[in-house]
Design a protein that fits this description.
- The protein has two domains: 81 residues, no CATH class; 338 residues, TolB, C-terminal domain (Neuraminidase), CATH 2.120.10.
- 9% of the residues lie in helices and 34% in strands.
- The strands form seven sheets. Strands 2, 3, 4, 5 and 6 form a five-stranded antiparallel β-sheet that branches.
- β2 and β3 form a beta hairpin.
- α2 packs antiparallel against α3.
- It is globular and about 80 Å long.
- It starts with a helix and ends in a 5-residue tail after the last helix.
Length: 422
Amino acid sequence: MSLIAPKILRVLFAAACIIHWAGAPAVAQSVRLDPVVSASSATWVAELGADTWVMLQRGFIHRVRDEALEEPPILTTTCGGAGEAGLLGLAISPDSTCFYTYCTPQLRRILVARYTMPSQGEPVDAATEEVVFQFPRRPGGGNHNAGWIAFGPDGYLYIATGDNGAFDNSQDLTIPNGKILRIDVSRDDFPDDPLRNFAIPPDNPFADAPGLEPTIWHYGLRNPWRCSFDRETGDFWITDVGNGLREEINVLPAGTPGGVNFGWPCYEGAIPGPFGDDGCDPGAAPLIDFPHPFFRAIIGGYVYRGSAIPHLYGKYIFADLVNRIFTLERDGDSWKVRLLMRTDQAIYSISEAPDGELYVCTSFAAWKLVPDPCRDSISALLAAYGACAGDAAYNADADLNADGCVNLSDLAEALTIAPCGE
């Protein structure tokens, strides 16, 4: 088989993606995933100066050196797991003096821990580990642990927890499961409690409610696996993995007070959930929900605020577990979803670098989302394909052999000049 043949297959695949999403601009395909490191069960990538860390679900954090995981790990925890358990979340403090992890030790509890930030190139001192918040997993299966943690624009630490497979946990305001939690890690309101080393922000909705869980910020969530704050606007994006019918995206404008009920299990997305909606608080309707089987499990992402891929700026980048990355953008009074790219591995997580660029964790590797000039040129050619000089669609830049028409000869020429993916 000639060298051009597999390239043509890749181009036809890209063309099929563009055609499938009618109306999507050709430039929407001009990205690729650049490998960072091969790593099974990676759940997070973090940049810290010249260091890149990769967190593994199995309970380790590694530094990346020469496109490989440096051994030994810079941190070994007791939180190894599989399925939906293990080492699941990581957050860097705003002053970069420490970092926080979220994990599920022995599947019996949820643990948020703090560690002192090591010097560049040095391992983490495991002796600096401090329990910030520990609470029981509630009766249910070993799933729905969520696990996202991050500092919000207000400086508080936000923690996404799942319902642990027990639906009624999400509406129970006496426990932290199935919620978005919000805590102040700069103070300690519980000096006599070794499992609560934090303070309650005074504007938390249940801060002064006797018998209710004061850490709750929002509730009514099933498994909010990945959330994010838009670094430019402060808007809060919350995705929730559905039960069997809907996957949902929620967004709360910056400044939205706490106490929002997202409705689970009375609602799954915008439709009645397994408990039905009779007499149930209707909760906050999702911005958009996706039906099964079109979506399998939503992987929340970020509003892109990097500079490497200008055409993505301001668009929300998210994924489906089953091999697809999408963009979501406002289109007048509505929102438009477009397929950005497909992968050949399951997608586990999306994380954001300090400069706004994005990392993607898949089944067996960690990657960085980067521009693909090759695909840009191929997309421009496909958009003009079949047009000749004088036609509205004609693009002289795509007419590589300058014969007056954009045709198969130009496609072959483009593949020779710009060997995509090689």
